[in-house]
């Protein structure tokens, strides 16, 4: 095992995470985007006990600051906020997976020998944008042909849920348990967008968004930021793998609209790189932008057989005290989904859990291996990360 | 020397460029942004004789598609245009250095072992945006405090030119020779935005933008895309180094407004990584968004002493047939500046020159080592690349 000694020499061992931090995800944070990012950054640096001047590189995950905030050059402005020069800095955009893509970028910067101390900051401030702008930016994530026909992300999710119910033994009430669970987890997470529990009845009675999906099946977008510090040290949470894959862009071109090829491919690559199997995963943060996606992704990741993920929700396997807790921080559904912040918040949650730092009422016990999946668009690009605790 | 064998194993030798291509840079290209990117990509793939399905990764450099084109998820949409899945794809943003930052990203992806065949595509379609939007996005590249006081990029450049004239022996007419040279080079480049030569008199008589700078001292923004294919093969142009650095964001905080720390630091890092000195550079593509920047950057890069770069312009050293040709493709000044496309177009030009593929009337002879510098904002983040020809 050798440590990197600077530019050009590459790393023989896995990068580790030695610091994490985030802001409270919320509908509207009065602070400017740059301050949100700097706040999360400061928290991760404090957690790692690292000075900003020690950084070699800064990787900012953000989906649409130019459109949402009329702000450009976010990475450079953040270096100024942090008071640093002479680093490599850039922003990474991959729609709703911008956060994890920035993390992957930092992971590669460490492995290539460019960086020994890399800060990844993901965040979004969506409350600044008018509804027309944010709706258009989010809708344009889909394939042009589908966008032009008016198919939106919620409608894809509604069609998927309807098909799932037709093919498998799950029903509308079973699906509500995903949101019940994730809201319950978020109610124990002081950084979550939603702090209240919801009942099956409330979910079923909430307004229809894209039948059979109700409002409470859909995640809230909003404002927030999260950050992690990646280094070459041995004393943190190990990043055993970070892999990504692109899948078919147009949903209509997929062999089955319930399949998310990019999640499957990224997951399989990550398992192979980390030398683990799905059975080794103790806890997972899944991209549940819509409740039905939690099931589809759990199946693509091999954590349940196809058509069986719903059972893990209904029988409590994916609860905090179950054998495979899913989204212990509340998921996108209830922790919230400030686009560029989401992928990093998943990693923050896993690190807290793997280090045993999650508050007692949210802590998942006996875990060594965590998985996060962050998804762009309706599954056209996914990033899958496998983390291992210090004892793993 | 070993070849990469896949994820996790890193590369012992420098990545090489085996294909390049671009669209004609112009004020307004009727094709959508995605088609511009796909066209440049196809040309680079054809030049390399590589099928899109051979790609491991796609790196898109673009500054502001959400704001300029109301388009999000550009990297994923481009994979769809190219008909590929199962690659790693993301967009890199670093304002006017988005192109070179995407190139650096691909360089690291190769060196980290993630990718063996990486396509970098940079482009922008600015003609779609209304003037208020494009002006605001470009203006917001500066530090918040300076933006709020109304200081724009042209005004920074004007102040720098004025100071240069006061400190050194150059004058307004000497500076005009930068634009004369770069227009002359562009007039021989079928991909350039401007195809006509200009005279010193025309420049001096053109409208004042930010005194002492005239309209013909400022580059045109517009539409265009460029692409390069990076691989691990031995038979291309070697990427001897790609380094970047952040400098002071607020110009007011710099010890001297004529200093561009980020260019100096990125340049020094690149020389060290490539094991060359400024004396080894045979040809350079410099980020001449304003004519005065060509001098300032040439000096920061050690290609001339401080206060002496103007002499190299006036005495013909930087002409195509001089001993150190600068911007043989026309530079930003005359090839044009579609933000995300610029950094890649510099590399395309160097590859053409190093391979001897530039048309006879634009070819620079007896060269083995080329340098490109792409700058974000008014110098707050720079990327410097050193390329070596096959015979180097």
UniProtKB/TrEMBL annotation, chains A, B:
Specify the superkingdom.
Archaea
One GO biological process term is: isoprenoid biosynthetic process
What SUPFAM superfamilies does the entry give?
Answer: Thiolase-like (SSF53901)
Q: Which GO terms describe its molecular function?
A: acyltransferase activity, transferring groups other than amino-acyl groups
The transmembrane residues are none
Q: Does Iron count among this protein's keywords?
A: no
Q: Where is the Thiolase N-terminal domain?
A: 19-233
Thiolase C-terminal domain location is 246-388
Keywords, in A-Z order: Acyltransferase, Isoprene biosynthesis, Transferase
| Name the record gives this protein | Acetyl-CoA acyltransferase
Q: Which Pfam families match?
A: Thiolase_C_1, Thiolase_N
Residue ranges annotated as coiled coil are none
Question: Is Transferase one of the keywords?
Answer: yes
